[in-house]
Amino acid sequence: MQGFIQSIRVERKLVGFSLFLLLASALLGYANARPIQELLQQAGVWEQLKQAANSIKQNPTFANTFAVIFLNNLRASAVMIGLGIFLGIFPALALISNGLMLGVVLGQASRETGLHPLVVFATSILPHGILELPAVIFAAAYGIRLGITFARWSLSWISPERLLQSKEDWQSLFARIPYAVGGIVVMLVLAALIESGLIVYLSSIM
Questions:
Q1: pLDDT over 70 for what percent of the chain?
Q2: Residue 3 φ then ψ, to 5°
Q3: Over the stretch 94-131, which tens digit does the pLDDT of each residue have?
Q4: How many CB atoms are closer than 10 A to CB 93?
Q5: Angle between helix 12-31 and 132-155 (nearest 10)
Q6: 201: phi then psi, degrees, rounded to nearest 5
Q7: What is the pTM of this model?
Q8: What is the rounded radius of gyration, in angstroms, for the C-alpha atoms of the chain?
Q9: C-alpha to C-alpha distance for 31 and 158, rounded to whole angstroms
Q10: Which pLDDT band, with edges at 50, 70 and 90, does 21 fall under?
């Protein structure tokens, strides 16, 4: 646990930047819910969510619900970290996409219920995303770090001094990333347990 906290603390600037991207895109999604929803539909984002929802609906057991939620989140986090090597572009875009979806959902739910968006967030989204959202932010931060490290390594060949610094950057990243990944996986497991329990419970009383 201490290793995970330390690994996140080292990347606090990128964690803050990732949080900013998520919040800024959420505000954009909320302010422009209708056109952005159409854009996300065209990009196939909503279709992926529907597939996951249909998989849970067809077999609404706790085990299946947990597996669908956890595996989808784990896959998304792994892709964000791994594809971050391409200059950190993909994790940044993934954060923006998630933020836009969050904003659109908040906007729709707020209009339909007449509740303030912060109330909707606190009562409907936060219970599901209290661990999932931070895990996504941490995964994106490390994906961006991987891209920065790779970019510096690519440029370091023009200078022996930079090459030495780049080697130290890689060593530092490889020392931290197991703790970060381990912590993210634990958070996703707990998030899936919470969300699965809520979904199964709500299904049983409806």
A1: 87
A2: -65, -40
A3: 999 888 888 888 887 777 777 777 777 777 777 777 88
A4: 15
A5: 120
A6: -65, -45
A7: 0.86
A8: 19
A9: 46
A10: very high
Structure tokens at 150: 């790779």
Separation between Cα atoms, residue 93 and residue 168, nearest integer Å: 28
pLDDT at 91 over 90: yes
| Helix ranges, 59-114 (H) | 62-82, 89-113
d(CA 80, CA 177): 13
Residue 12 CA to residue 113 CA, distance in Å, equals 36
Number of domains in the chain: 1
* DSSP secondary structure string for all residues of 105-168: HHHHHHHHH---HHHHIIIIIHHHHTTHHHHHHHHHHHHHHHHHHHHHHHHGGG-HHHHHHHHH
Domain range for 37: 2-54+62-201
Q: Does residue 206 form part of some domain?
A: no
Question: Which run of H or E residues covers position 50?
Answer: helix 45-58
| Measured distance CA(114)–CA(93) in Å, rounded | 31
